[in-house]
Model the fold of this input.
Amino acid sequence: MPAAVRQRIDEVNRKVATAMLKRGKIITPRTEDAPHLGDSIELTVGDSRLMEYSVSVGDSALVYAVPLEFGHVARDGSHVPANPFWVPLTRIYRKRHRSNLRTALRKVFKQELGL
Done:
């Protein structure tokens, strides 16, 4: 794969992952009395050969992301409704990533092949 293509793919992956990180920190539910789940959202760089970037939520101290996302039963037996924030975010950014990647690849292939 030509270096220009790899560079453009890496730029798109980094740009979309950073945008998802910023939006995730904004839309994550917050409370006044506990550490914020939004502060645990982080971007990690994976294998550089594969141009991987991953955005994750939660850590060992903040394990309530899944019950918050899908709903759960509280200790007193009452049902706590779901407050989905992560799955809709990933769906939106998956679509944006595909669109941005297609556009970038078309441009770079046109430049490389002289079309």
